[in-house]
Amino acid sequence: MDSRQGRLFAGDDAPRAPWEDDELRDRLVAEVAFAEPPFGPYDYAVPEALRDRVEVGRRARVPIGKGERTMVGYVTALAAAGDRPRLDWRGPLKEIRGVVDARPLIDGNLMRLARWISDHYLCELGVVLETVIPAAVRSQAGTREKTFLSIPDAVWAQRDNWPLQARQRAILEALAAADRGLTPQELAERAGCSTASIATLRKKGFIVDSVERVLSGELLDRPEQQELPPSLNDAQQTAFERILSPVRAGRHETIVLHGVTGSGKTEVYIRAIEEVIRRGKQAIVLVPEISLTPQTRQRFRARFPHVAVLHSNLGDPERNWHWQRIARGESQVIVGARSAVFAPTPRLGLIVLDEEHDGSFKQDTHPRYQTREVALWRAAAEQAPLVLGSATPALETWQRARSGQFTLAELPHRVSGRPLPQVDTIDLRAEFRAGRGRGSISNPLHDAIRKTLAARGQVILMLNRRGFATSIQCPACGYVARCPDCDLPLTHHKADATAVCHYCDFQLPAPDRCPECRFEGIRLSGLGTERLEEEIHQRYPGLAVLRMDSDTMRKPGSHEYALAKFRAGEARLLIGTQMIAKGLDFPNVMLVGVINADTALHFPDFRAAERTFQLVTQVAGRTGRGSAGGYVLVQTFNPEHPAIQAAIRHDYHQFATQELPGRQAFGYPPFGTLIRMIVRGESEPVSQAYAEELGKSLETRLAHRFRQPPVESPFGPLYSGTAGRSAAHIPGSAPEGTASRGGAATFRILGPAPCPLAKLRGRFRFHLMLQIPDESANAARTVIREVLRDLPEPPGVQSLVDVDPVDML
Length: 809
Fold this sequence. Notes:
By secondary structure, this protein is an alpha/beta fold. The protein has 22 helices and 31 strands.
């Protein structure tokens, strides 16, 4: 970066600028941030010729570095130089060269939200803005350039003296009467003249033109057939009134709507949104999976005429079209997945997160934001209520409700008095010892499927593993087919005869004999949805079966097509991964089978039990929604595990009561902030050495920041066989069970250690964890920024920061 480039928005202790006492004090200066290195932000002078076009939220072309190469960045702030009396000034600022956008891409509210995300999640502001503003909007997808005509103000002021014929004057009056600029064709039609007559007036200067990009065609906003609203039961009415209070008052409040599966949470959302719309405002409804979006959209379009949809399966022109309608305030309700939290609503009145506990609400790439926290900040900043709905709320959400920070509304029963389904476990250990059953379906589950099909009911089978077999091994020499970039076993996919890595998508033809010893009896072990589907076809010939996983749902519209087919009864049995476990409503489903409830139970992750409880509870809730009732069978090797016991009783309170004390004892969320730092690189020794240096520097600076020396950690290792680092005491109240001195809480750094997935995409990975009380988290973020700034990464090494991590692998 050119050392002459100044920073207008630097700290107040910077040197005074030369223009404080001369005519330059009124010069307009823009802060510009970039989505790629160097990220900035940096300051640029705004030329007088561009003063009316440079706005916060637009992109600008600016020179950067000694080579004066041009980059495009976001204008993130504007100020007169004299308004910032302590400019860190080292010479004349470079000037903006041009403006990219015809109008701001986002408003001030979203810019402030982007700044908060940048600070909270330790991410560059330009990168955040690239996430907030979809690529389709930045590229103006589905638009084309059009010429618009107008009359200059000076010309209109002299209209009584125009030396024009009556026909020419009529053309100008038709243009003046329009509420916007007209294209030549539109003006010719309105004035009943030829475009040649308009061209003559343009040549004489009576009409000027400007070129703008506009949507090339309007998409249809097709409402569903309108439905009559069902009546609310007493619990729904109480929950609705709790949401109604802040809606009517125009103030922020967070309401946790905890309702068992099938308790009518969506109808409560809809009633609240009706009130929001009556007040001239807009609502955002977020759902965790693309598979839920079609169903949710249909329900809302049946009640509201103008519903926008935002999710990753939209084409670019459609996404841009929806975005522009939202920004103009034409869409009443915005339904979408995670990124819809950034919908540019000018009059936000309510945000709803349905299935708020779901892990997909956490962004897994930079910036690694948690949608729940982003929605909370945005709703509070714009004085809008936030509703967090779930049958299995995240423990972070539940603890806030329990402590009074959030308002709790509960729906303890299903609508229409329908009972929750009976849930039983099948102990796979006993099945194995007795030699009963074959394949992945135990005898009790087989009998239940057969009876359900005979009763003309539908069946859902959930297995959270895709592919045919999870391991390809030679029994003769022990060879295992592994990914060369991730050092993980490849998954066998029978349909296309490939062996695939589910982490980096590396694939090769599935071997029919051992590549090393040429033995032909290659063994396929482990179970995935593809293998389960084959077993179902063998056991139940002629049965119409659907499979929903990321292999079968790749095409746009495939989720909607599959779910519509199952709802219509064209398929009797649905096999799927976790995407079928939440939010779906099929009245004819009489049986749900969980093939293996233990797939995530023993991961090296403090949330493993919570995820298992949520998944089993949610998939169990897909049945018993019709008059025929429902039944759930859960196959497990751990039927006595507390998470599974609570799930089969549909008892969230029991689970939370059992789980929270352990979290509190060790300072895990919701009783503290967790920040994960990952170091990855092509060289294992270099990556490990940098991770060690990072950990030491972080430990030293945190101890200095909080004026406390490090002490020996009373806690265990990060993972088995890996020493924990140390802990230090900082001001605050110690959670029960933590080591303390004089009533002080501890921060601790665990690691560095190899990640559970120690090599991914050709890079070796090490991580360390920082646990710190919530009240000290902002100070810890400052320390992390300083450490990363002062500790350059070696060539080929990259460090990542994940605040509030969900994935610990």
